[in-house]
Amino acid sequence: MAEYTVTVEYNSTEKQFKVQKGTILLDALGEEERAQIDTPCGGKGICGKCKVTVIGEVPAEITAEEKKKLSEKELESGVRLACMTKVEGDIRVILASQSAYMQILEMGIEYKGESAPCVQKQHVSLSQPSLEDQRDDYQRLAEQLEIDDLPICNRELSKLPELLREQDFEVTAVYNQQEILTVEPGDTSSSNYGVAVDIGTTTVVAYLADLGSGKKIDIASDQNKQKAYGQDVISRINHTMKNEDGLDQLQDLIVSQINDLIHTLVKRNKVELEHVYSVILAGNTTMIHLATGLPPRYISTVPFIPVRKKRMLLSASELGIEIAENGRVYVLPMISGYIGADIVGAILASQIYQSTETNLLIDIGTNGEIVMGNKDGLVSCSTAAGPAFEGATIRHGVGGITGAINTMEMGSKDLVYTTIGDKKPIGICGSGIVDSVSTLLFLGIIDQTGRIVSEDEISTETGKMLSNRLTTVDNEPAVILATSKETGKEDIVLTQRDVREIQNVKASIAAGILTLIKHTGLEVEDIDHVYLAGGFGSYINRIHAVNLGLIPSALEERITVIGNAAGSGAMMALISKNRLFECDRIGEETEYVELSSLPQFQEDYVNCMFFGDTV
Amino acid sequence: MAEYTVTVEYNSTEKQFKVQKGTILLDALGEEERAQIDTPCGGKGICGKCKVTVIGEVPAEITAEEKKKLSEKELESGVRLACMTKVEGDIRVILASQSAYMQILEMGIEYKGESAPCVQKQHVSLSQPSLEDQRDDYQRLAEQLEIDDLPICNRELSKLPELLREQDFEVTAVYNQQEILTVEPGDTSSSNYGVAVDIGTTTVVAYLADLGSGKKIDIASDQNKQKAYGQDVISRINHTMKNEDGLDQLQDLIVSQINDLIHTLVKRNKVELEHVYSVILAGNTTMIHLATGLPPRYISTVPFIPVRKKRMLLSASELGIEIAENGRVYVLPMISGYIGADIVGAILASQIYQSTETNLLIDIGTNGEIVMGNKDGLVSCSTAAGPAFEGATIRHGVGGITGAINTMEMGSKDLVYTTIGDKKPIGICGSGIVDSVSTLLFLGIIDQTGRIVSEDEISTETGKMLSNRLTTVDNEPAVILATSKETGKEDIVLTQRDVREIQNVKASIAAGILTLIKHTGLEVEDIDHVYLAGGFGSYINRIHAVNLGLIPSALEERITVIGNAAGSGAMMALISKNRLFECDRIGEETEYVELSSLPQFQEDYVNCMFFGDTV
């Protein structure tokens, strides 16, 4: 069979793949390249997100799906769907580098407290053995460290005799509460580093900290490369179920990505990798399962059972994490299959578990996780918000990348928007979608039921100014947000289906909040603080969020944005072992309400489909 | 360079080795073959122990050393020293199979108590998960086991979800106090086996136990294959120091030997290897270091420092011990560089640490280890007895093999002896040596100073009947114990130098006992019980041992032989975790007296050189 060469340009580099005639272009690429391509529909030609540009003559026939999803102009300029195009000759493909321009939320609450990390270092100067003091080498060290009886692995122990004598009994011990991890020559006690990692379904953020001072040194982030195997946790779980080595594959991907981030951090900051002894992992329950090699399959089906929720302490080398040879990985505990270690981290960072006032913590991503309560008790739930706010199920939705419309409001005569990086608009991201729907709601172009009205139904005068923006796309009503003139390509529209997606998200979040309020027997007004965690919560416009009814209007003035709280929590646990141990209590004592088991939730959900206050 | 074939016959099998012209025969052999050859002098042609028979024409010249060490008759029948003979042509070599006929002490004190081993099994039937009971798989198991919070490695944890569901939530957990080792399908709780191993410098004994019933099932033993690298601990330590991979080599040897013994035991008793979850190791401090891969070098020089004395808990797979995949190895603690885990085992087995009476425990091997005391305190010392009783430094000394003279006494007119297996005498083993020296001492042929007297100095009439047995060998006085007529080869003699060797052993043991008695402020008569442990102690004739002065005459009637007490102790620790934990106290609380640091000991030693009571 004929073999063709696919040359891929991406991030100013070029790679070649040899594939058999007829291979689907998406399958022809390597993992790294696939990770740059969005495939929320799983390669079925439905979502139209996997656009790539094919340069030169494209021998492959344009499929019906491509004709439907790509504009004339796009087709002319060589844009194709990677999931549909077959390789029928030598071709050259250009990928838009997403991650290079992706807006990833790294910042959060800063930890201010003493540095007392799990992995400690202590320099000791031991007395020499003699006939009067025949203590063995281990005992001599352990007694001086005042950590008698702490185990040490035989590989490390076997090096001890020579090390002690070569160093004239001056060494530095590295240990945690479980064991002596290693013993180093001389005094290296001032070099103790750790990395906190928040593994999101979409993005991975890693923080490097100096555990001597407790200071954050640097941050690195990237899109989660597992994206190549599905946009959301369910499709990743499906991948592990359908492929015998699927779990290994996804684990290898995330582990090597964590390694890449760590390497970037240590290189950039001139830190020795062998002085990084600890890693803290946060992430949703599925991401943690994938990263630690635990099969996540029973999380995806009723009754949603994880393998293990408790905090884990793992050997970095066993996990494949490349830090100091005997380094350790601490995995924050989880609360349920859909309230993960990321939320435990966010609870830690927000300190709502110690607060005397009543708090509401909301993290909206693919799932919306909601936690309510204070030091006397926390209750949580998770709602399947779906990836609409990440742009995935929205016709022109994109992530927070350069060129994404990120704000929208009514100007004096027409809609006014901004884009990330102030570039030509290429799509619309989460905050832009919320702004758009909210603005059109204000203007009466969308009604409370979520319907895009017809021109003659527009209920406001201002709204009528936009009547020329009403259109139909694939036989459904739509509103043009940016014209082809502005985009240089096709119009960017908000379709009726897009609005329904947003209604679903709104309904699930609002009904989740309502459920917790009912569960605690409180009223909306009793909530003193609302903490918005995660990327979406950070970039969202509060007025629009309240207008949609995502957050009860009574709470508008009580909102605090806390950024990447999962990452902040992981950092705190990295720097302070007491904080880490508090996570255990958070994991064990936070109540979890399974919404799918509550008939009332379904009713609330339907009622909350209306835009505006429904809680 | 020419290459020759060395064909070795041993144990009814034949092996071939290709070696270069001029290779020393000993170096031409494999490890297994070398282990069958005694080389106490380290291959220097001094001891004459490495005799092998070379069949057919032997092209290599007979060396001066061989002429000195081998009789005419031996040389005629093809006997050569393996350490001196060069390979100068294709040759065929016959090794006498020692281990097949070696008398190894396996029996000891039987443990009678409840079975409560470290590694336990428990069958559980778990409730099914539901929306009302969303506990994760680990938690569901751990709570039912009532061992909440016990870690489990991720490899095992990752198998749990499928296992539980395939087995309808009926499984058997295998766990110790540290972790859940594995989870098995269905109910396998009745299959729990363990192996206790006593690693002696000379012999290795392994006991298989059913940890459900606490019953000993079977015993297997062999000579320690490390023998090929030296007869005693010091030469083995030297091997690890002189060869970069020496420690690995010796560790591999003992580990594979332990594996062989375990395989023999499970095969013979139709036990599944995967149902053997625990191994207990006892042995002297150096053997334990070699088996666990810890460098023993600082044990061999002042101030004799081990790497670690405390009890160790190791992963069997990391150590290379082939039992259940996640099996564990418990290493009994040690007291000092020369009071090892074997003595801790012997203290446990003899129960002197719980006794209200005053006890003396003596284990004579290459070193003589002596422990004195009771429940209020134990004090120990180790004396460098040397391997004389194992036959190594005695001209015609042999181990306890078939054909060894093992008893000797004066008959009506002449000496009367027995041999192991009632075969033609081929040498003299430990008990035979003690009997011989003692008998000659009774008869006045050896005087109290250890001198072999001349014919006219014999002080007893009976002794004079043996005057024809007096001879000289290599210009030193000697006594013929078995004539060439009886042996079919050369005379078996006891030389003046041999007697001096025995005096050294006697002096070191007696001075050791004296030191402990002085240290405790007691008198000889205060000792209520003397426990003789180990092979030598089991086979020795008490009357002769007392006559030599090895054991004070006042204690003759208080002697109890306790056999392989180290092995018995290891068995007890295997069956009962409480006994294992008691070893920690024994290890920590038994005082150790370093004889080499006591000037008084040297004086006592010299005084104890006289035969007879010196304590």
How would you explain this protein's 3D organization?
The structure is a homodimer of 615-residue chains. Chain A has 615 residues and is an alpha/beta fold. Chain A starts with a strand and ends in an 8-residue tail after the last helix. In chain A, the strands form six sheets. In chain A, strands 11-10-9-12-14-13 form a six-stranded mixed β-sheet, with helices on both faces. Chain A has a six-stranded mixed β-sheet with strand order 25-24-15-16-17-26, with helices on both faces. A five-stranded mixed β-sheet of chain A has the order 2-1-5-3-4. In chain A, strand 15 (359-364) and strand 16 form a beta hairpin. In chain A, helix 8 (233-242) packs across helix 9 (246-268), helix 12 (341-350) packs across helix 19 and helix 16 packs across helix 21 (599-607). The model of chain A has no long low-confidence stretch (mean pLDDT 91). Chain A contains 21 helices and 26 strands. Chains A and B meet through helix 5, helix 7 and strand 13 of A and helix 5, helix 6 and strand 13 of B.
Class derived from helix and strand content of chain A: alpha/beta
Total strands of chain A: 26
Low-confidence stretches of chain A: none
The most extensive contact between chains is:
A-B, 46 and 46 residues
Sheet-strand content of chain A, in percent, reads 15-25%
Strand order of the largest sheet of chain A: 11-10-9-12-14-13
What profile does the largest beta sheet of chain A have?
6 strands, mixed
Summed over residues and divided by their number, the pLDDT of chain A gives a mean of: 91
Radius of gyration of chain A: 27 Å
- Assembly annotation: homodimer
Annotation field: number of helices of chain A: 21
Q: What would you call the shape of chain A?
A: globular
**Percent range of helical residues of chain A:** 25-40%
N-to-C span of chain A: 62 Å
